[in-house]
Amino acid sequence: MSLNVKMGDRPIFMYEEESQSEKLARKSKETPVFPIAIAACVAAVGVGVYKFNKRGKMSPSLFLMQLRVGAQGVAVGALTLGLIYTMVDQHILKKKN
């Protein structure tokens, strides 16, 4: 189902319903770094769950704060890589959209 909102002769925006898998496929085509970022987040959560059980006598609140800082580092790294990819793709390689 699609919905077009028009103002005069020009459409303002086009809205189409899409499933989650279609949205993931579209995002993966638009930005190839997107699936890598998702995989990095899943890996960070997996490592965190594993290390939570092996933390020893460390308090849970301290462990979770350290895990949050690590997860934020992964997120910033993924955003930086995506930004570098986009800049190289659009400005250095001058790829037309």
Tell me the helix content.
55-70%
Element string (H = helix, E = strand): EEHHH
Beta-strand fraction estimate: 5-15%
Number of helices: 3
Distance between the termini: 25 Å
Outline type: elongated
Overall average pLDDT: 80
The class by helix and strand makeup works out as: alpha+beta
User: Which stretches of 5+ consecutive residues score pLDDT under 50?
Assistant: none
* Number of DSSP E strands: 2
Sum this structure up briefly.
By secondary structure, this protein is an alpha+beta fold.
Structure characterization notes:
The chain contains three helices and two strands. With 97 residues, it is α+β, with helices and mostly antiparallel strands. A hairpin with a 2-residue loop joins β1 (2-7) and β2. The chain has helices at residues 20-30, 33-53, 60-92, and strands at residues 2-7, 10-16. α2 runs antiparallel to α3. The radius of gyration is 20 Å and the shape is elongated. It starts with a strand and ends in a 5-residue tail after the last helix. A two-stranded antiparallel sheet has the order 1-2. The model has no long low-confidence stretch (mean pLDDT 80).
Characteristic key phrases:
67% helix, single chain, alpha+beta, 97 residues
